[in-house]
Amino acid sequence: MPTHAEYMKVALEAAKQGDLPYGAVLVKDGEIQATAYNTAQRDNDPTAHAEINLLRQQTKALGKYNPEILKGYSLYTTCEPCPMCAAACAWTGVSEIIFGASIADLMSVGQSQISVPCETITSQGFQEIKITSSVLAPECLALFQ
Fold this sequence. Notes:
Layout: H1 4-15, E1 23-28, E2 31-37, H2 40-43, H3 50-62, E3 73-79, H4 83-92, E4 96-101, H5 103-108, H6 118-122, E5 130-132, H7 137-142
Parallel strand pairs: 3-4, 4-5
Antiparallel strand pairs: 1-2, 1-3
Helix pairs in contact: 3-4
């Protein structure tokens, strides 16, 4: 079974396709289900973050939506989800979020961020979401340098 680092490498490659270097991968039962990247500038859509694009793609592929549709899925993302993306993970029932660079890391290199950790958002929700941080964080942060 692939490791967190191996899935994060897929997210890193996805990030390189975006208009801002954020990438995300959705995994279930050890299999990659979808990948996505940021298209906010390309789409003129401030909600088109990698995680949102990924969740939209997968729920559309499943042909339905409910607050537990992605239960059992793990979301890998190169950067800690912003409050909007963290809330979307809760609304879709994602079971686990694994991220690379933290919001604080991004702010340290001059990236505009809302300084609210994703765990603050997910801990207030109605779904339990496991959070794993700092997976290949230096490589993820290097996308911005």
